[in-house]
UniProtKB/TrEMBL annotation:
This is Ionotropic glutamate receptor C-terminal domain-containing protein. Gene3D superfamilies: 1.10.287.70. One of its GO terms (cellular component) is plasma membrane. InterPro entries: Insect_Ionotropic_Sensory_Rcpt, Iontro_rcpt_C. The keyword Membrane applies. Pfam families: Lig_chan. The lineage of its organism: Eukaryota, Metazoa, Ecdysozoa, Arthropoda, Chelicerata. Keywords: Cell membrane, Glycoprotein, Membrane, Receptor, Transmembrane, Transmembrane helix. The chain crosses the membrane at residues 36-56, 90-111, 283-306.
Length: 312
């Protein structure tokens, strides 16, 4: 016979947290906006479209002029020729439209990749973690006596059972009895625990160097326990439901959550993991391309001068 009734009001889940994978080398960031199949397609288009335009267009232009004009157009330069016939306008208009979307997407992704650090994919799902654990490349830790171990052991998911077999239990209690998550997570280590706890301890992206999995391994109802003979159980249930539907609980929860986080960070050294100003290292790739282009230009100039003198 039950002595109390429960009024659930929210759900908490448990998941894994790891250290963010290492950042991608920024000097090569100008190649990151597009995948290599896209780059190969662009090279193929630049090689074939001028030839097609030369035979289809009513206005006769040399292949060299078309090729150079289309390349300059991809760098936001106007075309070096004018068209008058309706057929030519359709062809040139389709090219300008395609170039507009390609260059706009490239510029947007390039700027975002330079200002916000890019990271390698790493382990981001439970299936990836299970594969890494079974291969001996990852270790999994959790608080000693965690109920999640029993849930994982009884799970129908083979990946969770693999992770549980290799799970290591550690103590999270400090000297004063408080539960504290490891402040630093080693490379190739995943920690299992409540999502809200990890968010409180490590923060949210982009202002953190930790990655909290989007997947969950368990869901737990959180509620109020009231005496079975309590007179206003139904009224309390309706009031809690109203607070949730009106967003009052979420507002109070968010305010208290961030107050707790600021109190937690009061004695810690803050590190900015968010967007940062661009440095010379970030722009090393474009400057290297510029230097390489200038060097090739000088070589061509020297070759032209030598050829001119030899031909006299």
């Amino acid at each position: 016979m039950r002595a109390v009734d429960f009024i659930p009001y929210t759900i908490e889940d448990s998941t894994f947290v790891t250290r963010l994978p290492k950042t991608v080398l920024k000097p090569a960031a100008f190649l990151k906006p597009y995948q290599w199949p896209v780059w190969l397609t662009l090279v193929f288009v630049l090689a074939t479209v001028p030839i097609l335009f030369r035979f289809i267009m009513k206005k006769k232009l040399s292949g060299r002029k078309l090729f150079l004009s289309m390349i300059s157009n991809m760098f936001n330069k106007p075309l070096s020729f004018c068209v008058e016939s309706f057929r030519d306008r359709i062809l040139v208009g389709s090219w300008i439209t395609a170039v507009f979307f390609l260059t706009s997407g490239y510029t947007t992704l390039l700027l975002s990749s330079l200002t916000v650090p890019l990271h390698e994919n790493g382990v981001r799902t439970i299936k990836d973690l299970a594969s890494a654990v079974s291969a001996g490349r990852y270790r999994c830790l959790t608080n000693r006596g965690s109920v999640n171990l029993k849930l994982m052991n009884e799970s129908f998911d083979a990946d969770l059972r693999i992770i549980k077999e290799n799970m290591v239990e550690v103590e999270w209690f400090s000297t004063d009895g408080a539960i504290i998550a490891p402040p630093k997570i080693r490379k190739n280590v995943a920690i299992l625990g409540p999502r809200w706890f990890f968010t409180l301890e490590y923060g949210e992206p982009p202002y953190t160097n930790k990655y909290i999995f989007k997947e969950s391994i368990s869901l737990v109802n959180i509620g109020l326990a009231v005496n079975k003979n309590f007179c206003c159980t139904e009224t309390l249930r309706k009031t809690i439901s109203w607070l949730f539907n009106a967003g009052v609980f979420r507002k109070l929860y968010s305010n208290e959550f961030y107050r707790s986080r600021w109190r937690l960070l009061a004695n810690r050294k803050l590190t900015n993991f968010g967007p940062k100003p661009l440095s010379m290292t970030d722009l090393l790739g474009p400057f290297a391309l510029l230097g390489g282009g200038c060097f090739l230009g000088l070589l061509v100039l020297m070759f032209s001068v030598i050829r001119y003198k030899l031909s006299r």
